[in-house]
């Protein structure tokens, strides 16, 4: 059975003991071993959005609901992340910087499709773009090793793949109706 308060406390304790994503990834894997329990505890997503569940300077936990057919352009977090899908699907393209490119240009370096129950840990240097390829909301727990909402990060313009400052207000708007 998934209990949100216990999950948050377990993540907080894990980060206090080990600031890397490894311990938190195990906690998210345990939770996603029963995605139906997570869904029951959090509720069926009825609308898209970013719902903070916990936020501090060392840890942010978000309940995220993706709109159908939404694509988020390449972006970084500048902190580790662990993503667990409790309903739906999320397709990630991973990117890498082109060495010494003056505009911070990136190129594709891999991909991973995440479905219900899947977990994806990401190191602090990962750049990825994300798509919800299905015609319904996707629900996910996102756990970050820092303050997701206050960190200065980059995103890459989808056409030319050039780097620019990420605007959190624009990110939030992408997840609203």
Radius of gyration: 16 Å
- Which structural class do the helices and strands define? alpha+beta
Give the rounded overall mean pLDDT: 94
**Widest sheet: strand ordering:** 1-2-9-4-7
Distance between the termini: 31 Å
* Total E-strand runs: 11
The portion of residues forming beta strands comes to 35-45%
Major sheet size, sense and barrel closure: 5 strands, antiparallel
Q: What percentage of residues falls in helices of 4 or more residues?
A: 10-25%
What form results from the Cα inertia axes?
A: globular
N-to-C series of helices and strands: HHHEEEEEEEEEEEH
Tally of helical runs = 4
- Low-pLDDT parts are none
How does this model look, in words?
The protein has helices at 4-17, 22-32, 35-42, 168-174; strands at 49-55, 60-66, 71-76, 81-87, 89-97, 106-115, 119-122, 127-131, 138-144, 154-156, 163-165. α1 runs antiparallel to α2. It is globular, with a radius of gyration of 16 Å. The protein is an alpha+beta fold and 177 residues long. The protein starts with a helix and ends with a helix. β10 and β11 (163-165) form a beta hairpin. The chain has a five-stranded antiparallel sheet with strand order 1-2-9-4-7. Strands 3-8-5-6 form a four-stranded antiparallel sheet, with no helix packed on it. The chain has a two-stranded antiparallel sheet with strand order 10-11.
